[in-house]
Design goal:
Blueprint lengths: L1 E5 L20 H13 L4 E4 L7 E2 L2 E2 L10 H8 L7 E7 L5 H14 L4 E6 L4 H4 L13 H16 L23 E5 L4 E5 L11 E4 L4 H10 L2 E4 L4 H13 L12 E6 L1 E3 L3 H15 L2 H12 L24 E2 L8 H15 L3 H8 L5 E3 L1 H13 L5 E4 L9 H6 L1 H7 L11 H5 L12
Parallel strand pairs: 1-2, 1-15, 2-5, 5-6, 6-9, 9-10, 10-11, 11-15, 12-14
Antiparallel strand pairs: 3-4, 3-13, 7-8
Helix pairs in contact: 3-5, 9-11
């Protein structure tokens, strides 16, 4: 079983109002969570990215994080605070250039002795693009073509150096062979040439992570990713997704083990099943506060609901299919009218208030129970080919993983489901991934 830890804070998973919650921007919080994950034998520590503060009705959304530090900078610092844990950053392929991406990720891989990973994401809205000189120029249909070419170009830059090329001979005065680092790329989105000034990363290529459930996203993962960050946490859906994506690998000359599928999950523990269920319900209610419930409804309906009671019934209003009131929230993409129709049917069928509807419609804790029960459920997912492991998203910063590592990890190790200790040094070794050949081919 492969495990990763996601630092919360970019959505309403985080219960920042809990008395036990700490800072979401202090470096000490990142260190605590990373060291806890390493103590639990996790494969990697995963940071999200936000390129613009989200807004509701023209105001900064109250669930966003002001002052959140840039991910690669944080991970570079964490390289010195950890020794085995992989370090994964979400970095946008729409608003970053291949040369700088390749250099920053290669540098992190060198600083961490081969523990870097890149979660390749795209930007879909002009609102985010307003922070960049290109604005919202990139049509949504082109976002994956640019992402694929960006990744291809970055790999070409990494491959422009041989693994053993960096050397300095004092007698001859030779530092490096003249052809190292030379590159030339001509494509639809990038036309660049020059000398790449960072030696080949220790892993050859840092691990590539991708998140996406669309047809384009699944194909992108099958062709180019090492890990896919899945949103499927219902067993039947997870198994179908697992089978579908793994079946696509062969046409790219890849084996099933060349891609690890890791859904995002939450865990709530208790000494009894009833206690765990009560805790889960309390956490979920805290995650969907009254303002959060109205924000979700407004984002779907595209209307101002500030005059309605979040603990009252859903008003009889039709959704506005226009631009809406929410900016920068990916979960409000798609056919909002169809989503609103499904939500209304759910509210009417179950007699739910606005807040109860949002709690019900936006998901709940994945694994709830005693440590023994949770260990068994997680093991069953992996043995049943619903996933290769999990990315844990705790609701508290920075102590949200402590109980899981203290109470569930030992049980997983007793089952033989989780490593007792690290046997490799690099993230590729943790994940059981083959090293890429120069030129970007799979070994």
């Amino acid at each position: 079983m492969h495990l990763a830890a996601h630092f919360p804070g970019v959505n309403n998973t985080t219960v920042w109002s809990d008395p036990d919650a700490g800072s979401q921007i202090d470096f000490a919080s990142f260190v605590h969570l990373a060291k806890t994950a390493e103590r639990g034998g996790f494969d990697f520590f995963f940071l999200a990215e936000g390129l613009r503060l989200r807004e509701m009705k023209g105001r900064i959304h109250d669930l966003d994080v002001m002052g959140r530090p840039e991910s690669l900078t944080v991970l570079a610092a964490l390289a010195g605070a950890t020794s085995r844990l992989g370090l994964a950053a979400t970095v946008n392929s729409t608003f970053n250039e291949p040369y700088e991406l390749a250099r920053r990720l290669a540098t992190l891989d060198h600083l961490s002795d081969g523990r870097a990973a890149w979660n390749v994401v795209t930007s879909w809205d002009a609102f985010t693009g307003e922070n960049f000189r290109r604005g919202g120029y990139l049509p949504q249909s082109d976002r994956y073509t640019r992402a694929r070419e960006a990744l291809q170009t970055v790999r070409e830059l990494w491959d422009s150096w041989d693994a053993d090329a960096l050397r300095a001979d004092r007698e001859s005065g030779e530092f490096v062979t003249p052809d190292q680092g030379a590159f030339r790329h001509q494509g639809q989105h990038f036309d660049i040439s020059g000398i790449f000034n960072t030696p080949r990363p220790p892993q050859g290529h840092p691990v590539i992570i991708q998140a996406g459930d669309s047809e384009e996203g699944r194909e992108f993962a099958a062709s180019d990713a090492d890990v896919i960050f899945s949103r499927h946490s219902v067993p039947e859906e997870a198994r179908a997704f697992f089978k579908d994506v793994k079946s696509r690998l062969a046409r790219y000359g890849r084996r099933p083990d060349d891609l690890k599928i890791l859904p995002a999950v939450t865990v709530v523990l208790g000494d009894t099943e009833d206690e765990a269920a009560e805790r889960a319900a309390a956490i979920r209610r805290a995650q969907v506060s009254a303002p959060t419930a109205l924000a979700y409804i407004e984002g779907i309906w595209g209307r101002d609901f500030s005059g309605y009671d979040p603990d009252g019934p859903l008003p009889d209003l039709e959704p506005d299919a226009g631009e809406g009131v929410s900016k920068g929230r990916a979960q409000f993409r798609g056919d909002r009218v169809a989503i609103a129709r499904r939500w209304r049917e759910l509210a009417d069928t179950r007699g739910l208030t606005i807040r109860e509807l949002v709690i019900e419609a936006t998901g709940r804790q994945t694994f709830v129970g005693t440590p023994e029960a949770v260990a068994g459920q997680m093991d069953g997912y992996v043995q049943g080919e619903a996933s290769d492991g999990f990315i844990l998203v705790p609701h508290l910063t920075p102590t949200g993983l402590d109980e899981f590592v203290d109470r569930v990890v030992p049980l997983l190790r007793e089952r033989g489901s989780l490593r007792a200790e690290y046997t490799g040094a690099t993230l590729r070794e943790h994940l059981g991934l083959r090293e890429p050949r120069t030129g970007g081919e799979k070994a």
